[in-house]
Amino acid sequence: MNNPIAPPENLHAFQKLEPWRFTLALMVDYAVLAAALAAGAWTLSASPWFWLSWPILWLVIASRQHALLVLMHEATHSLAYRQTWANELAGEVFCAGPVFYSLQKYRRNHLAHHKYMNEARDPDWARKLEAPDERVWWEFPRKDNSILYWPRFWLRSVVYQIKAYFEIKDNGGGPKPETTGIAKRVTQIRLASYVLLAIALTWFGLWIEFLLFWIAPALLVLTFMARIRSIAEHFALKHTDFFEEVRNIKYRYGIEHAIWTPHHLGMHLVHHLYAGVPFYRLDALHDALMENPDYKENARLNDGIFLGRKPVAKDMGERGPAHPLWRDEAPAA
């Protein structure tokens, strides 16, 4: 879709990279993860009552796993470091690797998503809507208001994400993953890191801790977070024009920001308008764009996911298209 908004005159200033800010964000995420993992390991030798803290620890760990994926997204757009080798190494090994993703595979599909946002050629869109049994979970306003909706929603998010690891749809929209040069070397380093991790877990006898405090939150919590974030980005909208295809979220409560769209990814409309702007300048760019009457009048802006006065959860129950989301279908008579 074409960008319907004229760029601000100082767009180049917003596009300026400050790699230390990416590095700091990555270090903070790792520090929080280290503290939470240490706390989790400690609970195994403490009073059984401390096991009650596991859901909180899982939430913290999954939120930082999510944050690593957001930083991988930055590297996908070459916004981590100016040097290609540093950008690829950070994105592949230190961001994607720990959560068992591949930067190279993600990049192909994600660039196609930007090129064909919410069209049949968009791999993300197709994966969600092509199959009828999955499509019903992305159609809004939601019709199911029963008490069982959210448990089923959670289970669907787990199954969907597991399948997504192995079924990345290739719609031919993006360049093929690189298999030579820097891309090949950083992929080899990522794979080697898994071997070293397995050796370390075996040597120190930490497999139980790894399963309980890394795999469990990734499987049971991160999957739910990723699904909610996907809805917040492109769903529960009218899909009538560009501004009804993607939204911004300017959070009323910081805790939601940290959980659902870390590192300012809530400014998703801004990101789709100007994908060359790093995450730490998206809020400032949004403020600058608010000086544009077209943007100010049309940009969809929520103030939270479940909290706030105008949360995405409210849109999920009230907002949706007047035609089928899967555009190959004819509207019902």
Describe this protein with a few key phrases:
mainly alpha; 58% helix; globular
Short description, anyone?
By secondary structure, the chain is mostly helical. It contains 15 helices and 2 strands. It has a two-stranded parallel sheet.
| Helix/strand structural class | mainly alpha
Tally of alpha and pi helices: 15
Number of strands: 2
User: Secondary-structure element sequence?
Assistant: HHHHHHHHHHEHHHHEH
Helix content: 55-70%
Which parts are unreliable, with pLDDT below 50 for 5 consecutive residues or more?
none
Number of domains: 1
* Main sheet attributes: strand count, strand direction, barrel closure: 2 strands, parallel
Terminal CA distance: 28 Å
Shape: globular
Q: Please state the average pLDDT score.
A: 90
Gyration radius, rounded = 20 Å
**Beta-strand content bin:** under 5%
Describe this structure in words.
- By secondary structure, this protein is mainly α.
- It has one domain (13-318).
- The chain has 15 helices and 2 strands.
- It has helices at residues 11-14, 19-43, 54-76, 84-96, 103-115, 123-129, 132-135, 149-166, 181-204, 207-234, 254-260, 268-273, 282-289, 293-298, 312-318, and strands at 248-249, 301-302.
- A two-stranded parallel sheet has the order 1-2.
- The two termini are 28 Å apart.
- The model has no long low-confidence stretch (mean pLDDT 90).
